[in-house]
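Page 42, continued from yesterday. The earlier attempt failed because a stray header line got pasted into the input along with the sequence. Redoing it now with the clean sequence only.
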Amino acid sequence: MNKFIWIALVAWDLCVGGSLLKWDAHLQVHVLDIGQGDAILVTTPEQNHVLVDGSPDSKVLSELGAVLPFFFRDIDLMVLTHPHADHVNGLIPVLQRFHVGAILMSAPAYPSEAFDAFLREVAAQGIPVYMAEAATDFALGDTTLDVLFPFSPATGEVFENVNNASVVMKVTQGPWRVLLTGDAEKEVEAQLLAAGLDLEADVLKAGHHGSHSSSTEAFLEEVAPRLMLISCGTGNTYGHPHRETLEKAAALGILVLRTDTDGRLDIVFGDYSWLRSIFAPSWRSFSSSRS
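This time it went through. Structure tokens are written below.
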């Protein structure tokens, strides 16, 4: 049986923005426009906040400022999927600016000044740390964060490709399911498929910025998302997202949104999420077709 870690709930209702979001009372996913990297903010209906990765620099702070009230300084859970610079660098200034309740991370053997600085800051603040493993899930109110990978803690493990130490987790709230994959590549996707896990999700955050090394056809067919979100930088030198990934999504009828062409991706889940667009037309609503 999986063990659950319950994160303390933080409710706020101190300004028009806060009241509006609380009134909206739906799961929200923000893929922040931070360039070539990942930074994703998940907000639960109870207004708890999970930051998954932190971008290659401090731009994550301005992006958080765009979706949170200016006075808001609480992150309930911070997730570091793996220690590459484009995921960890921006978490350091977030730790210095925000109160972070807990850390979930994958910590493979990886020599990096930024990763070392991140670990020092976490230790200095005495923040509780949980090493990602499939046996540990997190619950924030009615929202569950189900860790699917790594199957066991990767702490200190040597990986030929550190992308494949990435935390993969499913966010579930009511009928909604969002699969976040870090930079996990096809080798991890194959392991997840072989394990027979329930991978089906309404929304998939494409692995490794839409690279052709991730998002295999078999994986996409199993997840069967209606929407794929890709975080990548405009004109990046890696060729992300790869044409193959976009073609596979198109062939399966998956709508693709990407930060390099669409900017920050703000997704609201729920039957009444269209009301939010009156106040912020750039938001995209995603209404349920299921009871």
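Notes: The chain has one domain: 20-286.
Reminder to self: strip header lines before submitting.
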